[in-house]
Design goal:
It is a single chain. The protein is an all-alpha fold and 717 residues long. The chain has four domains: 267 residues, no CATH class; 135 residues, Serine Threonine Protein Phosphatase 5, Tetratricopeptide repeat (Alpha Horseshoe); 93 residues, no CATH class; 78 residues. It is built from 36 helices and no strands. The chain starts with a helix and ends with a helix.
Length: 717
């Protein structure tokens, strides 16, 4: 790619050089050269001849047309008189054997004077007899424009009757403008680039591709993307030099979005053998387009590009290509399609990106042990990597029944939990210790969590349960005194149940319920990170780094709406959704974007806390854009489907799933829910069909369910 670009730039870096042109008079140069206009200013050619005047008028027409979106690409109107053409530059370049500049000069003169006929043999043109003028052309060819000006001034001083050739003056003016435009472009002065292009329309032709590229880039960087598309489109429609055309597409692909590039590529030519002219760079284009899709879930990349990158993964085996496809599918909830690519990337070259993608999929498949193992080595590479790792640890410790973990795994999880002061994983360590009949260890963990986050009620409840198990009446009383007015379940710890006359046993069963609830919340956190558009993840991460100071509990009531919004995102980053909801409530006092972001954030916070109804209410507190509204509605419907399934309301479950499927494709977790709902409603054919499809993706729960159904069908009545 670089070699193509460099060849074109070098060839066009002269006065008006053209790359890849053979010596002589190529057909493409004798048919008139349309130019691209970029402004509406009248730009004169500096010549007093009739033909240049007509050409200048035509340039002004083209400039106006490009401004209105109707680029003119027809040849310049011919004059009725045969013009007097200044061929001094032609003679000089011919005498020096400078074929590139000679051909460019022929093209330039042909564009200015359509009725002019180039000499059949340019080398037969007589050498300039004016030695001083020849010296000026020599200085010009060396880009020593100031020296040319000085030589002209000196000769006019010596010979007041002498007038420099209009062609030399015109070319000098244009060359100086070109140099000024290049300087402005290199300095990032994009408005100046656009202005200079408008002032010098003779620069904007295929004979100087580098200038056209720079003007197009300046358009993009000044938020005039349509003008940039016009410039690139002009080059593809009019420039015939193959390297220029390929390089134009390469440059455009770095500045234009996926959709705009498809419009440009639609103008591609195919050779007599059917080979398309941009096939050599098709792989790089496919990589770029899929990468765009990784960043923006709203982009749907054409299947042909996806298949091309898949072929690259097979043929070249690069981890980077596998990652492109893995994240593309993961951003679209296509976990089954994404997983093989993340595994391929890790096999070729393990990385934080590959491991995090795989870990998110494993968490969605309820395999937190594998996710923890995958992410441990990469947990410190970014805030988001650490968030994924801690979600895995929380889910792992919250499994029911609790798994028997190796000592080295428990030790490393404990170390990270203490280093990060992560309340959720610390709390789960407490419940895990209780499940292993280690109430003293559990008490230590719950107490430790409360030193990190003094208002964390789940840890206070766990502390009370641990002391109840230890028969520490004084310790339990202290917890109840501190928390009784804030938590009904803590206030009732140890009390006798009037229904079945059992005492503390009932209270000790409650942690399992609490753990189950926490597991659901942790799972939803991970699923949200995986499914949420990447721009939202960035928003959260940025807010957490703005100094909102959310490591300790603070009251958001006195904050300005914008500050409360920042605090809310910071709390979400630290997985403290109920506090975040309070901060977002304060931010709802703002206006416009702040209020919209606050409603969106509060709805996410309630979803993370498992409060689906509150999330639905929060979503109505301000106007949300279409993508955010659809995202929240999707999450709310999914939560309601899960709740209905747990309550054994299977028809209601299917109803919620049907509503959700109208907004977004159904992930495998919810497809499993649908299949079991069908089974429980007696719709065995539908259930079996769905279990079979899910089993083909490797879902073990679906395989087991299908086997059980087939065994049931074989049993005698």
């Amino acid at each position: 790619m670089k070699s193509i670009l460099m060849a074109v730039v070098l060839a066009s870096a002269g006065a008006a050089g053209v790359a890849g042109l053979s010596f002589g008079v190529p057909d493409g140069l004798t048919k008139g050269m349309p130019r691209l206009g970029v402004g509406t200013d009248d730009v004169a050619t500096g010549s007093t001849d009739d033909a240049p005047t007509v050409a200048a008028k035509q340039s002004r027409i083209e400039i106006a047309q490009i401004e209105s979106g109707q680029a003119k690409t027809t040849p310049v109107v011919e004059t009725e008189r045969r013009p007097a053409v200044d061929e001094s530059a032609l003679r000089y370049f011919a005498s020096r054997g400078d074929t590139a500049r000679l051909n460019a000069e022929i093209a330039r003169l042909r564009a200015l004077y359509p009725t002019w006929t180039p000499p059949e043999n340019p080398l037969a043109v007589p050498v300039n007899e004016d030695k001083q003028l020849e010296a000026m052309w020599a200085l010009y060819s060396q880009s020593r424009y100031a020296d040319v000006r000085a030589a002209i001034a000196e000769r006019r001083k010596q010979d007041p009757q002498w007038t420099p050739p209009a062609d030399l003056v015109d070319r000098l003016d244009v060359a100086e403008k070109r140099a000024e435009l290049i300087t402005a472009s290199n300095a990032g002065k994009n408005e100046d680039v656009v202005r200079l292009g408008a002032e010098t329309p003779s620069l904007l032709t295929c004979s100087d591709a580098d200038v056209l590229w720079r003007v197009a880039e300046a358009f993009v960087k000044t938020d005039r993307v349509q003008r940039a598309k016009d410039a690139y489109g002009y080059m593809i429609d009019n420039c015939t030099d193959a390297p220029v055309r390929v390089a134009t597409v390469q440059k455009a692909s770095t500045l234009l979005g996926y959709k705009d590039m498809q419009d440009l590529l639609a103008r591609e030519h195919a050779g007599p053998d059917g080979v398309k002219e941009f096939d050599a760079i098709r792989s790089d284009l496919a990589r770029r387009f899929v990468g765009e899709g990784d960043e923006d879930p709203e982009i749907t990349v054409a299947p042909a590009y996806l298949k091309l990158v898949e072929k690259l993964v097979t043929d070249e085996g690069l981890a980077s290509d596998a990652l492109l496809l893995g994240w593309y599918h993961l951003r679209r909830d296509q976990n089954a399609a994404a997983e093989p690519f993340f595994r391929k990337a890790r096999a070729v070259e393990d990385s934080a990106s590959a491991s995090q993608g795989l870990a998110l999929i494993l968490l969605a498949r309820k395999m937190p042990g594998e996710a923890e193992d995958v992410m441990y080595a990469w947990r410190t590479t970014s805030d988001q990597a650490m968030q994924t790792y801690l979600a895995a640890t929380t889910n792992l410790l919250a499994l029911d029944p609790p798994p028997k973990l190796e000592a080295k795994v428990l030790n490393r999880i404990a170390q990270v939990t203490l280093e990060e002061k992560h309340p959720e994983t610390g709390e789960q360590f407490g419940w895990y210790a209780l499940a292993m009949d280690q109430p003293a260890t559990a008490e230590e963990w719950f107490a430790q969590v409360l030193t990190w986050k003094a208002d964390y009620e789940p840890a206070a409840y766990g502390l009370g349960v641990a002391r109840l198990r230890l028969q520490d009446e004084a310790g339990l009383a202290a917890v109840k005194q501190a928390w009784g007015d804030r938590s009904e379940r803590i206030a009732r710890l140890g009390e006798q149940d009037a229904t079945d006359k059992k005492t503390e046993v009932i209270s000790e069963r409650q942690p399992r319920l609490a753990r189950t609830g926490q597991r659901v919340v942790a799972r939803e956190v991970v699923e949200e990170v995986a499914a949420r558009p990447q721009r939202i993840v960035r928003t959260v991460r940025h807010a957490a780094n703005t100094g909102a100071g959310c490591r300790t509990t603070r009251n958001p009531a006195g904050l300005a709406p914008a500050s409360a919004l920042t605090l809310g995102w910071c709390l979400m980053e630290r997985n403290r959704p109920l506090e975040a909801a309070q901060a977002f409530e304060v931010a709802l006092n703002g206006e416009g974007r702040t209020r919209s972001d606050a409603a969106y954030g509060q709805s996410l916070a309630y979803l993370r806390a498992g409060l689906t109804s509150d999330a639905a209410v929060a979503a109505t507190k301000a106007k949300l854009d279409g993508s955010r509204g659809a995202e929240l509605q999707t999450a709310i419907l999914a939560d309601r489907a899960v709740s209905s399934f747990r309550a054994k309301r299977y028809r209601e479950t299917i109803g919620y799933l049907d509503q959700r499927s109208q907004l977004r494709a159904e992930p495998t977790d919810l497809m499993i829910l649908r299949a079991f709902s069908y089974k429980n409603l007696g719709m065995r054919v539908d259930a079996a069909r769905l279990f079979e499809a899910l089993g083909e993706t490797g879902r073990q729960d679906a395989i087991r369910a299908l086997a059980e159904m087939r065994a049931e069908d074989r049993r005698p009545n």
